[in-house]
TrEMBL record:
Residues 1-32 are annotated as: Disordered. InterPro entries: RNA_pol_sigma-70_dom, RNA_pol_sigma-B/F/G, RNA_pol_sigma70, RNA_pol_sigma70_r2, RNA_pol_sigma70_r3, RNA_pol_sigma70_r4, RNA_pol_sigma_r2, RNA_pol_sigma_r3/r4-like. This is RNA polymerase sigma-B factor. Residues 58-127, 137-205, 224-272 form the RNA polymerase sigma-70 region domain. Keywords: DNA-binding, Sigma factor, Transcription, Transcription regulation. Pfam families: Sigma70_r2, Sigma70_r3, Sigma70_r4. It comes from the Bacteria. It comes from Actinorugispora endophytica. Gene3D superfamilies: 1.20.120.1810, 1.20.140.160.
Length: 277
């Protein structure tokens, strides 16, 4: 009989590439519940009341994760409440944009959205051009109203809804939004992405830009959109003005989701070329 010690030694995980031996990010408690809620959200596309309730449950479930990510930026001079609101905006965008058919867990989609919103918040730290003081003072209130509306309704507000919430005329709201866009001027040569990524901001032009859905002055796009073929124009309108997912668009126009993704990429590149001329 073999009497040697057969105790199994603890397994030492292999070191990550680049010397980063940190443990992988923990999945939040209730991940299984979240996946069920996301599946229910996709299954209730025509039941807005049910979708609103499901979004609320997802927000409650992932709020601790957003708070944790926001706390990582707490020593940079910004109020913690502001950072939390910025992170919640990323959460709502993730809930609205996630598609279970991608085959990836929700948290892998959520974290880049939340950290991206926080990084964008800190990147916008100086006014690039002279802006009336009243607009500078109202920018913080505008951001707060957008974040609260998005958290409550699961979508970004329209210009009219923003004007009503801030007790302003629509024209004055458009001026405020235009002024807020002057908050920073970015060089096309500035680093963009993670610390070990050598890409510059200019390298990203031509890719699918999620911020296009936030364009307020839609009239500036009208002529370019009118010149698009009917199918391409419909896909763009459904995605950026109808807040539809690629899966929903594919079902509406009778194409595969992959085909819709290619059409969006090609059409957005064409629109950028026309708008930058």
């Amino acid at each position: 009989m073999n009497t040697r010690n057969t105790a199994v030694r603890p397994r030492i995980p292999a070191q990550r590439r680049g010397g980063d031996n940190r443990p992988p990010a923990r999945q939040p408690a209730g991940t299984g519940q979240a996946e069920k809620l996301l599946a229910a959200l996709a299954a209730n596309r025509k039941n807005e009341e049910a979708r609103e309730r499901i979004r609320g449950e997802l927000v409650e479930l992932y709020t601790p994760l957003v708070r944790r990510e926001a706390r990582r930026y707490r020593n940079r001079g910004e109020p913690m409440d502001d950072l939390y609101q910025v992170g919640m905006l990323g959460l709502m965008k993730a809930i609205r944009g996630f598609d279970p058919s991608y085959g990836k867990p929700f948290v892998a989609y959520l974290l880049p959205m939340v950290t991206g919103e926080l990084k964008r918040h800190f990147r916008d730290t100086t006014w690039a051009v002279r802006v009336p003081r009243v607009h500078q003072e109202k920018r913080g209130e505008l951001n707060r109203v957008i974040a609260e509306f998005t958290q409550r309704h699961g979508r970004t507000p329209t210009t009219k809804e923003l004007a009503k919430a801030m007790d302003m005329e629509v024209e004055a709201m458009i001026e405020l939004i235009d002024a807020s866009s002057a908050y920073s001027a970015l060089s096309l040569d500035m680093p963009f992405g993670e610390a070990d990524d050598e890409s510059a901001l200019g390298d990203t032009l031509g890719g699918v830009d999620g911020d296009l859905e936030n364009v307020v002055d839609r009239e500036s796009l009208k002529d370019a959109l009118d010149r698009l073929p009917e199918r391409e124009r419909r896909v763009v309108l459904l995605r950026f003005f109808g807040n539809k997912t690629q899966s929903e668009i594919a079902a509406a126009v009778g194409l595969s989701q992959m085909h819709v993704s290619r059409l969006l990429s090609q059409t957005l590149r064409q629109l950028r070329r026309e708008l930058l001329v």
